[in-house]
Design goal:
mainly alpha; two-stranded antiparallel sheet; 2 helices
Length: 72
Protein backbone atom coordinates (compact mmCIF):
# COMPACT_ATOMS: atom_id res chain seq x y z
CA UNK A 1 0.00 0.00 0.00
CA UNK A 2 1.26 3.43 -0.90
CA UNK A 3 1.37 5.99 1.86
CA UNK A 4 0.97 9.03 -0.41
CA UNK A 5 3.72 11.10 1.19
CA UNK A 6 6.68 11.93 -1.02
CA UNK A 7 9.38 14.55 -0.67
CA UNK A 8 10.38 16.54 -3.71
CA UNK A 9 13.92 17.47 -4.78
CA UNK A 10 13.98 20.43 -2.34
CA UNK A 11 13.02 18.22 0.61
CA UNK A 12 9.45 19.56 0.90
CA UNK A 13 6.71 17.11 1.79
CA UNK A 14 4.28 16.51 -1.08
CA UNK A 15 1.16 14.70 0.19
CA UNK A 16 -0.64 14.93 -3.15
CA UNK A 17 1.95 13.27 -5.36
CA UNK A 18 -0.06 10.05 -5.76
CA UNK A 19 -3.47 10.38 -7.37
CA UNK A 20 -6.34 8.35 -5.92
CA UNK A 21 -7.68 5.49 -7.99
CA UNK A 22 -10.71 6.36 -10.08
CA UNK A 23 -13.78 4.15 -10.13
CA UNK A 24 -17.09 4.23 -11.96
CA UNK A 25 -20.43 2.97 -10.75
CA UNK A 26 -23.02 1.58 -13.12
CA UNK A 27 -26.08 2.96 -11.31
CA UNK A 28 -27.16 6.59 -11.38
CA UNK A 29 -26.40 8.73 -8.34
CA UNK A 30 -29.11 11.34 -8.96
CA UNK A 31 -32.82 11.26 -9.65
CA UNK A 32 -35.19 8.51 -8.52
CA UNK A 33 -32.68 6.24 -6.82
CA UNK A 34 -33.85 3.70 -4.23
CA UNK A 35 -32.06 5.62 -1.46
CA UNK A 36 -33.74 8.90 -2.41
CA UNK A 37 -37.17 7.28 -2.52
CA UNK A 38 -36.60 5.63 0.86
CA UNK A 39 -35.51 8.95 2.38
CA UNK A 40 -38.48 10.82 0.89
CA UNK A 41 -40.89 8.20 2.24
CA UNK A 42 -39.44 8.38 5.72
CA UNK A 43 -39.55 12.18 5.78
CA UNK A 44 -43.18 12.10 4.59
CA UNK A 45 -44.08 9.70 7.39
CA UNK A 46 -42.39 11.94 9.97
CA UNK A 47 -44.28 14.97 8.62
CA UNK A 48 -47.62 13.16 8.66
CA UNK A 49 -47.17 11.95 12.25
CA UNK A 50 -46.08 15.46 13.27
CA UNK A 51 -49.27 16.93 11.81
CA UNK A 52 -51.36 14.34 13.64
CA UNK A 53 -49.58 15.19 16.91
CA UNK A 54 -50.10 18.90 16.29
CA UNK A 55 -53.83 18.39 15.78
CA UNK A 56 -54.08 16.14 18.84
CA UNK A 57 -52.30 18.51 21.21
CA UNK A 58 -53.74 21.83 19.96
CA UNK A 59 -57.21 20.73 18.86
CA UNK A 60 -56.73 22.54 15.55
CA UNK A 61 -55.50 21.41 12.18
CA UNK A 62 -52.54 23.02 10.48
CA UNK A 63 -54.49 26.01 9.15
CA UNK A 64 -56.24 26.53 12.49
CA UNK A 65 -52.88 26.44 14.23
CA UNK A 66 -51.54 29.17 11.95
CA UNK A 67 -54.69 31.23 12.57
CA UNK A 68 -54.15 31.11 16.33
CA UNK A 69 -50.52 32.16 15.85
CA UNK A 70 -51.55 35.21 13.81
CA UNK A 71 -54.05 36.30 16.51
CA UNK A 72 -51.37 36.53 19.19
Amino acid sequence: MRSGSITDDQGKLNNFAIEPEMYLTEEAQTGFTPYAELLNGRLAMIGFVSLLALEFFTGHGLLGFFQTLSEM
